[in-house]
Write a structure and sequence with these properties.
CATH architecture of the domain at 16-237: Alpha-Beta Complex
Shape: globular
Radius of gyration: 29 Å
Helix content: under 10%
Largest sheet: 9 strands, antiparallel
Structural class: mainly beta
CATH topology of the domain at 16-237: Gamma Fibrinogen, Chain A, domain 1
Strand content: 35-45%
């Protein structure tokens, strides 16, 4: 029988607590742990002293915490540098690893809650112990600054009732007990140069000195303490849930199909902001629109230049540019000349590019104001197609088209215009900012128009040919009450009766507007103000579920792919599940970090926490304004993006391609020779380095690159390959030694 003392991978235990219970003399240090959810044994640091021991370290650091689901630093650094200046740079485990340590259990089932140990003086000789007692949390979240739901908090053994880890008592306070040594706030306060950590209150001083356990940027007080975060799952091997493996072995196990958090390397981008008769001068985002036609991705917006990397000389190219869908390289042959910004782009059925914005002409050609079709290679206006708009209705000195969508034989358009002309005869149709024109020559449909009383922002014509959905800042459609949303018949343009109304997230009414709509399948999704992402039942538009963000906020774009809905927002802090209330109060089920874009499951509307794009915005914090899933299943995100978390330059947009979700081949020709197991090497289809997991009886006991394993004891052995993305092959059949 294997001894589960945690001293080797073969002897890995399910928890630090189990080791301490079985081996009371175990001291503080590194131990091997494994659960069915961790899959493979790994080393972690265990505190075997405090309150009887059994704690596992999941994070530590001074200023600069990210509090993100992907983790920070490296697990090796976390377990080897526990305290002192070498541990001041934050390191934390990923959400998936921590859930593995929980063994599939709930975070709110931790008997001891979440333990935070933070320095109480600048020399690190005094400490404060915090215990967060969770109210309802099914799995791990790093959402301390957002407000993890609590029953109470213990500070140095004294219990204080508290609704959540943010308490919403003050904008700078996560735990509003007092304003000195009992306060804890974790958000990136500007007074700390936006460096997040476990901060004290206003009277606690810190220092920028490299060796101080209490940090402050200058003399702003509210010192950020060096802190450690621990949990104590209390289960042993019998409760861990390892399932015996049959003689045939296990099937393959691939990662979920979702795009990578890290953008693919692309050298080219767009830079600068050029405002010409701009109807939205407060928006400084260089990229507002993305579309793919053939092998080209077109980028539109307010930019002035294209640029090959951060140090290159900018090349003049205003408002619209083309890039290769695979390499991201700029296509210099596409050089249209526009005199105004681009708001939206769509692929035309004939393989050309439809462009909408506030320009008065393209290449100086007549009848190209606001809406034009361009040759996808040269950027020249397409012969035989014209649909210019005129007579502005809302802000700005020009008429403009805000959004377009193509469905069937029509281009649907919304914006600030009273007249649209088109076709070879330039037939003129009066309208109130809503129209459709022929995809063949641009002729407007005089029977299909609408009137909105304020700016429309997005339009989506459903693929089933039934409906057209329009969202914006309006409160009436065709003079009838219709706040923020109008759903009309795709054939007639008449409002569809019997549908529910948009449900605002606040009392407004100036904030009752939507910015994005997606009508797909059996669901209807809205994104906009105040900071809300909402799902409605498509059949009758009855409200079903929502997520709301905090600090920053409004959702600005939607795109669907592979059972997921991707959405973006000017939100770099927190998203709250199961609430439609802003400002957010206690009425939510979960808080998790959000980084400018997120994914939700199209069927359940649950946030897919594995997606947290590692991108940064400019100081304008506009966030992404458009999303595109290309034919390679890569997600393009466009806005005021400037870099990745690793400081790779981004010029307004990023491309996140699919993670490798294909399992490598199963090791072949496995056999045993005396006490050795040998097998034939495999090659991963994606070219990823391959290692091998050796399983004995019911669990992994070793991970190695070699193709020979010396079995340490008798048992039932299996081998499988694993690639760098974490995809696992099926195991070999059993080999008995």
């Amino acid at each position: 029988m294997t001894v589960r003392n945690g001293l080797s991978a073969v002897e890995a235990a399910p928890s630090c607590y189990a080791i301490k219970q079985s081996f009371p003399a175990s001291g503080d240090g590194m131990y091997w742990l494994v659960t069915p959810q961790l899959i493979a044994p790994s080393q972690f640091y265990c505190d075997m002293t405090t309150d009887g021991g059994g704690w596992v370290l999941i994070g530590r650091g001074r200023q600069g915490w990210r509090f993100n689901g992907a983790g920070q630093g490296s697990p090796a650094t976390l377990r080897t540098a526990i305290s002192g200046p070498s541990a001041f740079a934050p390191a934390s485990l990923s959400t998936s690893t921590i859930n593995g340590l929980l063994g599939g259990g709930r975070t709110d089932a931790l008997n001891d809650g979440i333990r935070v140990r933070r320095a109480a003086n600048d020399t690190g000789t005094a400490w404060q112990e915090l215990r967060y007692h969770l109210r309802s949390e099914h799995s791990w979240s790093w959402g301390f600054g957002g407000g993890i739901l609590l029953n109470s908090i213990d500070i140095n053994g004294i219990n204080y009732p508290l609704p959540n880890s943010n308490a919403f008592a003050a904008s700078t306070s996560d735990v509003a007990i007092d304003d000195a040594t009992m306060r804890v706030f974790t958000w990136p306060w500007f007074g700390h140069n936006s460096q997040a950590g476990f901060s004290y209150g206003s009277t606690v001083a810190g220092s920028a000195a490299g060796g101080s356990y209490l940090w402050a940027a200058a003399d702003e007080n509210y010192a950020v303490a060096f802190a450690q975060v621990w949990i104590r799952p209390q289960f042993g091997d019998a409760e861990a849930g390892f399932t015996p493996i049959g003689n045939g072995g296990l099937p393959s196990d691939s990662q979920p199909a979702i795009v990578s958090n890290t953008p693919s390397t692309m050298n080219w981008g767009v830079t600068g902001v050029l405002k010409v008769a701009d109807p939205d001068p407060a928006n400084d985002s260089p990229v507002l629109a993305l579309a793919q036609v053939g092998n080209t991705v077109f980028v539109g917006g307010k930019f002035e230049h294209v640029q090959n990397g951060s140090a290159a000389t900018p090349i003049a190219q205003n408002f619209l540019a083309a890039f290769d869908v695979t390499t991201g390289n700029w296509l210099s042959g596409f050089r249209p000349v526009l005199d105004g910004l681009v708001y939206d782009l769509e692929a035309a059925p004939n393989g050309q590019l439809l462009v909408a914005g506030n320009f008065t002409s393209v290449n100086g050609a007549s009848n190209t104001a606001g809406l034009a079709m361009l040759d996808r290679t040269t950027g020249v206006p397409a012969a035989g197609w014209q649909a210019p708009v005129s007579n502005k209705r809302f802000a700005g000195s020009r008429p403009w088209v805000r959004a377009i969508d193509v469905q069937g034989n029509y281009v649907y358009a919304v914006g600030s215009f009273n007249t649209i002309k088109g076709g070879t005869s330039l037939a003129s149709v009066a309208t109130g900012g809503v129209a459709r024109v022929s995809t063949t020559d641009g002729t407007p449909d005089p029977s299909w128009t609408g009137v909105v009383n304020a700016i429309p922002t997005d339009i989506d014509a459903s693929a089933d040919g039934e409906r057209v959905s329009i969202v914006g800042r309006f409160t009436t459609y065709n003079a009838a009450s219709s706040t923020a949303v109008a759903v009309v018949d795709q054939a007639t343009g008449a409002p569809i009766p019997g549908l529910g109304a948009y449900v605002p997230s606040d009392t407004g009414p100036t904030t009752h507007f939507m910015l994005a709509v997606l009508d797909q399948g059996s669901t209807f999704t809205l994104g906009g103000s105040q900071h809300s992402l909402q799902r409605y039942r498509r059949s009758d538009l009855q409200f079903e579920r929502a997520h709301v963000t905090r600090y920053g906020g409004d959702f600005q774009a939607l795109a669907a792919s592979n059972g997921l809905i991707y959405t973006s927002c000017h939100c770099g802090n927190w998203t709250y599940t199961d609430t439609n209330t802003y400002p957010v109060d206690h009425d939510y089920s979960r808080v998790i970090p959000v980084s400018w874009a997120l994914a939700v499951d199209a069927a359940t509307f649950d946030v897919v926490e594995a997606f947290e794009p590692q991108i940064s915005m400019s100081t304008q914090y506009e966030g992404p304004w458009d999303l595109l899933v290309d034919t390679n299943s890569c997600l393009w995100i466009g806005g005021d993006l400037i870099s990745t978390w690793t400081n790779q330059w981004l010029g307004g947009f990023a491309r996140h391609c699919q993670r490798d979700a294909t399992a490598p081949p199963t090791p072949a020709a496995i056999k045993h020779v005396r006490s050795k197991i040998v097998w034939r090497a495999v090659t991963d289809p994606a070219g990823s380095p391959v290692t091998y997991e050796i399983l004995r009886d019911d669990r992994v006991i070793a991970v190695q690159a070699e193709k020979t394993y010396l079995a340490p004891s008798p048992g039932r052995y299996f081998v499988r390959s694993i690639d760098a993305a974490g995809n696992r092959s099926a195991t070999t059949p059993v080999v008995v030694i």
